[in-house]
Design goal:
The complex is a heterodimer of chains A (about 325) and B (about 425).
Chain A lengths: L48 H16 L4 E5 L3 H6 L11 E3 L5 H14 L6 E7 H6 L2 H10 L4 E6 L40 H7 L4 E6 L3 H12 L5 E6 L3 H4 L6 H11 L5 E4 L2 E5 L8 H5 L15 H18 L8
Parallel strand pairs in A: 1-2, 1-3, 3-4, 4-6, 5-6
Antiparallel strand pairs in A: 5-7, 7-8
Chain B lengths: L1 E5 H11 L4 E4 L6 H13 L6 E4 L3 H13 L4 E5 L1 H6 L1 H9 L5 E6 L13 H5 L6 E4 L3 H18 L3 E6 L7 E5 L3 H7 L16 E2 L8 H30 L7 E4 L6 E5 L3 H14 L4 E6 L1 E3 L3 H7 L5 E6 L10 H8 L6 E6 L9 H12 L6 E3 L4 H13 L6 H9 L8
Parallel strand pairs in B: 2-3, 2-4, 4-5, 5-7, 6-7, 11-12, 11-14, 14-15, 15-16
Antiparallel strand pairs in B: 1-8, 6-13, 10-12
Helix pairs in contact in B: 1-2, 1-7, 3-5, 7-9, 8-9, 10-13, 11-12, 14-15
The chains are: A alpha/beta (about 325), B alpha/beta (about 425).
């Protein structure tokens, strides 16, 4: 074994702490100045990845806009758990209209700000994968195509969790949901063509597209803050594990997000004007089994009647992601 | 200023005078000329500051208007027919949130069968959406109602549809008095929203409301429309002071004083009805007209009062509650319940079927002698209807209805007049 570079624990790792970092590298979330845009007391499940992702992202967006931020929210878990009338967790101006129109509502807000000359006020739209990749897709694409001055954030937990864990177009193949039960010869969700909305966003040529996970806080904050320095349509797709829908332990949310990235199942990258400009390399590659086995939604692939051929197909998807986005650390190869 | 102009163009000019800040546009006949004209006004800089947004659907059009209005901008859009249905979820949402959006509905039939011509099926399908609905009789009134609509909508913080008959009004060229900017400015103050998305004073809008408060929120929407019953005549009177003409209000009567028979209708068909009534009056018939301008809120008391002296009424409507009969007629019957008045319903003009004076003369004379069934379908081709019914009795695989009816009619056999 040759030279092993020494890495300080808190730099280039997953930890949130700031102690050993230069001020400029410190995470906003661990600082005293974070805005707590989603205040405590909301009704998300224990270990909710979406609540965590939204707090990271919106706090970063608030910081990136000097507190001049308005949010439009699609119907879904985030909306329901944050605003049980007459309570609201939101510390910024926030509107919920419908399931499928968050992008268009945000366009309207941005137009109002423009016409009123409030150029300092920025607009963010947010929704889950159902509200983004399925029912809200038309409005999202329209907002992209017009290059409206909106940052759209999708919190992807790979299903309709608020309505009881049904399949969305972001649900991975073989996964168990309430509408893709693990029964019959091909249990779980079908192997379709998939619907990669970050890539579809890139195909619109919009100024900025990025993916992120709740396991990489600094990367997520960096991408949101970068997006806030730009104008026009921007899209950030954040991977947010759902303990309820996936059948994972509440304490494993960060670990599941990390394994999704480390296995290649969820590529983390950023792109400007349709071209990939950076990827978050896999630090220590793991086989997809490591990611799949802790999740009850994939339990039917293992156990008494295993489906190794299905696991192999999922590994093929991960390998393709790794090749396509060049996710393996050159140094490690 | 008097102009010889198209109804759509005149409405676009009126909207421009109302200083809208965000306009959302999606094409659908017969409203398209309105947003086209507004787009040109914004593009040229004639209408500024204003954002004109070409959206990807009517659902997005209303959603953009929702966002703009919630952020404190005066928002406008226009639609018709299938477009109104496609935006329906957002239509209800806009009123539920109490956002004072004004929308032109260039009334048109709803398919299938696909049909682009005029009737009132589209806006009447949104009867219970919480939007106010004002029906213009003429293009002049369409212009004037839009100006009043912004004032009323913003005062009550509730949205309004201004309904004008597709093609019959939107595409008609006639003399229209386009108001001056200073007149509109003196009548319509700048938008002062009751609720607004503002980082300086953050609010949450659109929270989840459970059984503990939902009924109260819905009742308050109803209460606002009841307030509108009071305000609509007052705003029409104020309008007259500034602009010098009668326009708007809840209802309008014509030669009704000693009328024994009253014809009730909405929109441009009132013109044909008045012409017919004039001719019948000359022949000695005691007949009059009641036009309903405010369909929502529905002016129950005013309709009852207007019908007080008559013996019978006939509601002629361009809409059909399939499986029941009239839609407007139901409201009118509610207004006169307990009075013992005899009422009839005539369904007419669906899908653009011309409503002719000749047919109206015959219909009104039958109404006078109470020789009508409760519901009449004006100028219905019973031969064709019965032929199709017989076909369905004879064979299981009778095929598509509309195509059979077209076949039986023959391509150019339909002559009206």
């Amino acid at each position: 074994m040759g030279f092993q570079p020494v890495k300080f624990y808190q730099t280039g790792t997953f930890t949130v702490g700031n102690r050993l970092l230069a001020p400029i590298d410190r995470s906003l979330q661990s600082g005293q100045m974070r805005s707590n845009s989603i205040n405590s007391g909301h009704r998300a499940c224990q270990g909710c990845g979406e609540a965590l992702g939204a707090r990271y992202a919106i706090d970063a967006a608030v910081a990136g806009s000097d507190g001049q931020l308005i949010a439009a929210n699609a119907t879904g878990c985030l909306e329901v758990f944050s605003t049980p009338y007459p309570e609201s967790s939101w510390q910024l101006p926030w509107i919920h209209s419908l399931f499928g129109n968050a992008a268009a509502v945000a366009t309207g807000i941005a137009a109002a700000m423009k016409v009123k000359g409030k150029t300092d006020v920025r607009v963010v739209a947010q929704g889950g994968d159902g509200g983004t990749t399925d029912i809200g897709f038309g409005c999202l694409s329209g907002m992209f195509e017009r290059n409206d001055d909106v940052l759209y954030i999708c919190y992807d937990n790979e299903g309709y969790m608020n309505t009881g864990v049904q399949r969305s177009s972001a649900t991975p193949p073989a996964a168990r949901t309430a509408t893709t039960m693990p029964v019959g010869p091909a249990p779980g969700n079908v192997f379709g063509q998939g619907k990669n909305v970050p890539e579809i966003a890139m195909a619109h040529g919009i100024p900025y597209v990025a993916t992120a996970t709740v396991a990489d806080l600094r990367d997520l904050e960096y991408k949101v803050r970068k997006a806030m320095t730009m104008h026009g349509a921007r899209y950030i797709h954040i991977f947010v594990p759902c303990p309820l829908g996936w059948g994972t332990a509440s304490s494993d949310t960060i670990r599941m997000a990390r394994l999704a990235k480390e296995s290649g199942m969820f590529p983390v990258f950023e792109a400007e004007h349709g071209e990939v400009t950076g990827v978050l390399k896999i630090r220590r590659k793991v086989p997809v089994e490591d990611y799949l086995m802790p999740q009850k939604r994939f339990a039917h692939l293992f156990g008494k009647n295993p489906h190794p051929e299905t696991v192999a197909r999922l590994q093929t998807i991960a390998d393709r992601n790794i090749r396509k986005y060049d996710l393996l650390n050159d140094e490690a190869n | 200023m008097l102009k010889q102009t198209e109804g759509s163009k005149a409405v676009a000019e009126a909207i421009g005078l109302c200083r809208p800040e965000v306009i959302c546009a999606y094409p659908i006949s017969p409203q398209t000329h309105i947003v086209e004209a507004l787009g040109e006004m914004v593009k040229s800089g004639e209408l500024a500051p204003c954002e004109f947004i070409n959206v990807e659907s009517e659902f997005a059009a209303m959603s953009v208007a929702i966002g703009a209005s919630a952020a404190g901008a005066r928002a406008y859009t226009a639609t018709a027919s299938q477009g109104l249905l496609f935006m329906a979820e957002a239509v209800y949402n806009a009123s539920g949130l109490g956002l004072p959006i004004v929308m032109t509905v260039a009334n048109r039939a709803i398919g299938a069968p696909i049909n682009i011509w005029n009737d009132h099926s589209d806006s009447l399908s949104q009867r219970d959406s919480g939007w106010m609905q004002l029906f213009a009789e003429t293009n002049q009134e369409a212009v004037d109602l839009h100006i009043q609509a912004f004032r009323l909508a913003e005062e009550l913080s509730m949205p309004i549809m201004v309904c004008m008959d597709g093609f019959i009004l939107t595409h008609a060229f006639e003399r229209i008095d386009i108001p001056e900017q200073n007149q509109v400015d003196s009548y319509l103050p700048p938008f002062d929203p009751r609720q607004v998305l503002d980082p300086a004073e953050p609010v949450s809008i659109g929270a989840m409301v459970g059984p503990e408060a939902f009924m109260e929120v819905r009742y308050l929407a109803h209460a606002k429309q009841m307030q509108a019953i009071e305000r609509i005549p007052q705003l029409a009177a104020e309008f007259k002071q500034v602009f010098g003409r009668d326009s708007g209000g809840l209802i309008r009567t014509y030669r009704i004083d000693d009328a024994e028979t009253v014809i009730i209708a909405m929109g441009s068909v009132l013109g044909t009805i008045k012409d017919t009534v004039d001719e019948m009056r000359e022949a000695g018939h005691k007949i009059g007209v009641l036009g309903i301008i405010s369909y929502r809120p529905f002016p129950l008391d005013q309709v009852r009062a207007a019908l007080k002296g008559c013996r019978r009424f006939l509601v002629l409507e361009k809409s059909l509650a399939v499986g029941m009969g009239g839609i407007v007629a139901t409201d009118v019957r509610m207004a006169v319940s307990g009075t013992g008045l005899k009422g009839f319903t005539a369904i007419a003009g669906l899908g653009g079927r011309p409503i002719t004076k000749a047919s109206l003369h015959k219909l009104f004379r039958q109404a006078e002698v109470e020789a009508l069934p409760p519901v009449t379908f004006l100028d219905l081709d019973w031969d064709v209807v019965n032929k199709q019914l017989e076909r369905e009795r004879q064979t299981r695989h009778s095929g598509p209805i509309a195509e059979n009816v077209l076949h039986d009619k023959g391509i150019v056999s339909a002559k009206f007049g």
